Amino acid sequence: QVQLVESGGGLVQPGGSLRLSCAASGSIFSINARGWYRQAPGKQRELVATIHSGGTTNVADSVKGRFTISTDNAKNTVYLQMNNLKPEDTAVYYCNVYGRTWSGGLKDFWGQGTQVTVSS
After folding, report:
1. DSSP state of 56
2. Could you report how far apart the first and last alpha carbons of the chain are, in Å?
């Protein structure tokens, strides 16, 4: 199994920056993708950015050009650099790992979430 711990959220003014980190512990057979999702009050959870095992990234149109996803495999950590933040980026941000467990099944693993609030 995989345990995920996010950090780096907080309150920032519009136009500011934050970097979220997600440290993973434990192990599974293989990781297909790592990513970040967010959920604003009253809305469904949505994809922000993912990075696949081959290095391909997928970024939501709403954050393209402002957010960057990256990984440090040595630290087993995935990052989300968020620049030029807007009030509509306010949400709880969740780290995700999608992969195959030792028993053979595919599974999503989630962190506990970190709050990002963009407000003046």
Report:
1. -
2. 40
